[in-house]
Fold these 3 entries.
Entry 1:
Amino acid sequence: MKRVFVNGYGSIGGRIAQFIAGDSDIEVLGVAKYSPDDKVNDAISRGFGVYVPKNKVEQFKNFRIAGTIEEALEKCDLVIDAAPAGTGYTNKKNLYEPKNIKAIFQGGEKVTGDKAIADLIFNSRVNYEHAFDKKYVMQGSCNVTGMGRILQPLKEKYGKKIKRFDATLLRRWADLEDSKTEVKDSIEWTHNPHHNDDVKNYMGKDTPLFLRAFKVPTRQMHVHLMDIRFNETAPTSSEILDLYKNEYGVATLYNAKGTKDIRDFAETIKFSFKDTNMIHIHADLIEIQDDVVKLTYSDDQTGIVIPENHLLMQAMLFKKKREDAFKHTEELFHMEEKKKLLEEHFSKK
Ligand SMILES: NC(=O)c1ccc[n+]([C@@H]2O[C@H](COP(=O)([O-])OP(=O)(O)OC[C@H]3O[C@@H](n4cnc5c(N)ncnc54)[C@H](OP(=O)(O)O)[C@@H]3O)[C@@H](O)[C@H]2O)c1
């Protein structure tokens, strides 16, 4: 049985560990903690062995830890790195490369320049098989993952008929459970958002995507305003919506008041972590003007990348056939059922 270690137990690492613990093809060896806080006992109470850095063992003397991170890495086949953005590079150099271990990194890392951790960004809709023989792969960030789910079906259907994708990203300020970050009363702009190059890494350099990003004071998801400009008269809205009917991880919703409305519904029907694990097209906002389709969708920042990590893990560890991997991920995440419940609740009245 393959053994997987989750290095980092924050918003993303905590979710990954809990979902993949239900996978009978692997054993979750444990999780890493770097701060001796309440989350150590949280992880232990959920049945995870907690491993800590060798040089911090003394700080954890009041906890029942399982060992050091260095020891855990000796015993595992793949590590899912869920470290704070940029730290994955240091981990790769200091831990994974010397120990010759496969690793999945998260979207806050880089795939170009001095601190690149891999050359491939994974998106299960676009390049599942490309991860088969890779030692290091980055799972795209939440926004980058969501954009693949929108752009790839459009590219496949309309190809060169599309002139440009002009996207404006409204990014959440912090996550729901992130009590350390104060949400400021401000709208901040991002210079050279990484999402542009990241999407092109897996969709092709010639993808005509032009993107700007703003951080807005909310903890409840991201919203993308995507204008799709055609070289001719744009398709109808029902043609566009039809394109996403059977897309994995894309729900088409009507009459949601806002992003919190969706998370509140997710909470009432007890989706884990109040996540939907998908993007939501807001069908009542779609507009067609001459050659342009104006599409609005929201992106569950914390949830969307978790099933993606599970798919990527299966590609890297087992080279599983794509359809088998999706079937297996479905057993843990129930994406079809979640999509159905969301679409029934937020239906066209
Ligand atoms: N949050 C999102 O919505 C989201 C979505 C998609 C992708 N991502 C990406 O996922 C990654 C993790 O983000 P996050 O939001 O989960 O961050 P987070 O909530 O701040 O959690 C980071 C975790 O990393 C641990 N850590 C500290 N130093 C570490 C090290 N050297 N190596 C490994 N782990 C270390 C921390 O441990 P202690 O708590 O014990 O100090 C903490 O548990 C980033 O690349 C981010 O860009 C985040």
Entry 2:
Amino acid sequence: MSTLASHFTGGRDYLAACTLGLPTRGTVRAVRSDLDAAASGRPDVAAASRAVEAARAAYARLVRSPVGDVAIASQTSVMVSLVAASLPDDAEVLCPEGDFSSLVAPFAYAGRGIRLRTAPLAHLADAVTSGTSLVAFSLVQSATGEVADAAGIAAAATRTGARTLCDLTQAAGWLPVDATLFDATVCHAYKWLCCPRGVGFLTVTPSFAAALRPVQAGWYSGDDPWSSCYGTGGTLASDARRFDVSPAWQAFVGAAPALEMFADADITELYAHATGLAARFRAGLGLAQPARPSAIVTWPDATGEALARLTARGITASGRAGRARVAFHVFNDDADVDRALGALGAIRAHGAGGLLAGDGALGASGLFAGDGACAPGGAGRVPGLLDARGTGARTAPDSARHVVALSYSI
Ligand SMILES: Cc1ncc(COP(=O)(O)O)c(C=O)c1O
């Protein structure tokens, strides 16, 4: 983990990868040199185009998707709109209550009689019926950090013939992901994948791709983009590249090194690291551990007091939907956890072994009562949880589907 962390300049007291990731040293170098080249009169479009393909290939590796099934994009809502535009009239779309608006709103405003139905995330699989055309959900919820039972939802959709669309924006980068479990996935890579904003990816299986109309086609959707600049753009790419939109060049220049770093990383080790820190933080605050470990911790903070305390100590956290939210990533360590707990008054003694709910802790005032966390579980359980199931430990298992089913069903 220290090797990965060495790719970052900062990170101390930054608990907000769920809002915005930090740029890697490689990203900073690449963007600076791209700017220098442009400023000196030699913008390098060919290099930017190579960066786009390097980013696409690295992302494909990371989410275990064939590279031909990956399209580039810039915003989640735009990718989701492509899917919405291809649904039949009067289709029913099922989403979790309170999921991120960029995933939900394109269906709400699709028109043509398209109906949006919502259900609590925990009951999403049960809510899929034979009348459901598409189940669209985030693998990890932005507002709560809850991890969806993706395997259960995918199985329910397969049973009834519904398609699945999964938003990986809050997951890819810390949670092992197998995009091929879903008909389509979307991801904006500026959070856990530490890319500049404006770098997004759509994966789509060939059978679902056949049902999607390339309504956003432009010159980059052509089989050869540089020969597709005029008129109707020539021949569309035969693979998912026909859903490409033209790339935000500089953003992709910065994205390629970050995505290659994450694709090369041992993601199960990163998962154990991030969820281990989150579990330590929850234990320090006396919060129950969720049924499926998450790198994001949220708790009720209607008055904003917890967020204000963190901010006052120079800790970057966030607040969403009346909850305080912290996130733990590769550039964080135990000291970040303890400093945040200290800021919240949740430890008496700063440092080793000091994870005690102290006098004046926000937890003691009952702010955590009713937090939607699931089954209680020991923080120490998390780093070894793959081992504990007797499933082959923390080295990457052979089958990507095995990894995803494993981590999502815990
Ligand atoms: C689950 C999820 N999807 C997508 C986004 C970003 O949406 P967009 O790419 O439309 O800005 C966020 C941002 O917080 C998010 O949490």
Entry 3:
Amino acid sequence: MMLLANLWSRLVTLARLLSAGLWAVASLSIGVAGAVFAGRGGAGVKAFLLQSASQRKVFAALRLLAPNLNLSQVLIKCYDNTGTVIVSRGVDVREVLDRQADFEVVYGPRMRAITGEANFFLGMQDGADYRHDTSLMQLAMRRSDVETCVAPLVRQTAARLVAAKPDRLDLPKELTRLAPAAIVTTYFGIDTMETADLISWASEMFWYLFLDLDAESALDQRALAAAKACRLGIDTAIANRKRSGAYGDDVLGRCLTLQAATPEFDDLAIRNNLIGLVIGAIPTLSKAACQALDYLLDYPDLLAKAQAAARQGDEATVGRYLLEALRFNPVNPVIYRRAVRDCVIARSTLRACTIPAGRMVLASNLSAMFDPGFTEQSDRFWPERPFGEYMLWGYGLHTCFGAEINRAALPAMLTPVLAQQNLRRAEGALGRLRLDEMNFPVEFGVTYSR
Ligand code: HEM
């Protein structure tokens, strides 16, 4: 009986893989042809393929036709590699991200350029240094802080910012960058930089580390200048705190307190760790908040349910709608690693693939979250989805250090917006999410009435 049930479930999964893949091929062909016939040429096709709805279709087609696509082209030019493998089935994505020793993180060289000397733990392979630094930072950034400090801070900041705008809000400029910046200034305790500088420096450094696929030198120079200025800002914060004689109970203060027992955690090491956290915190949270709301605004029935929860002050339910919206429209559709040696993935299956040493492997978290063989109810907007199914912020050893912060901060930030009556996009172009040259939100207007 059990065997039959298993067989049946495998057949259903296969049928869903097949139908989703074939439908995706057909609808992509129509979309690409539409962009070409509309006279928008290569730029139109590129814009079409960059939409997350199109990306979902590309990955549905890949899952069916070429689940581990091995290309000789180098798509990510900012880190050494010999070509690209795109991995789209959920189990294979998980396998790549689980096999740290075979698939390494590549960010080390650029991380060193940012800190001015040392690596940061996201750029490290698993080992003593990684465990040392993450352990110390876990003592400085306690899980319990999310409830006692971070969520209240973001909640109050967002409530104040939204209250100041009676009928319209430009999300990135007036909320989604400012609330994460408050996490850095108040919770991390790095309060020595102008907020506008902090936001643009963090975004430039983030772009340099993760998004500079073509290694564009003008923006690289800007990012390195930003890194230098940010290092100075953190040095000043450390010096001020030491001079004051009272370390305090924020992340910086706890790092300084830890120095007594761990002398190797000197000021420079503290700075290197804090700069990594600053980079991770601001542009990502802002983009996630904008993209989640952008998605909900397209679906009035979902928006209405999220708004009903927001008006009850039910952040947990709001959070579930936001996470599910982000699954459809995530900040990063792939996570990349480089093969250390020739490696076989999906061994003993028909899709087994030998990945040559040096290949950059794009493990698609977006695809995994829509793979019917990996994620339950993958096509459905399902706010009750268990949190563990989300791969929005990575998987395995390097899973986002701010994962629990994200889970609490996103609803805390957006609940006051969602609670407004008659919430809709602003008229015209202002109501469409606009990204800057680094792909971060710069303009996204909503209007509402009180
Ligand atoms: C919604 C917002 C965020 C998104 C989408 C996001 C996404 C990610 C992803 C995908 C990774 C894994 C990268 C990889 O494996 O190559 C990661 C790691 C990391 N994130 Fe986030 N992140 C967010 C917010 C934050 C925040 C708020 C912080 C800081 C408080 C942070 C700090 C980090 C750090 C330090 C790592 C490295 C973890 C490690 O190497 O063990 N992130 N993030």
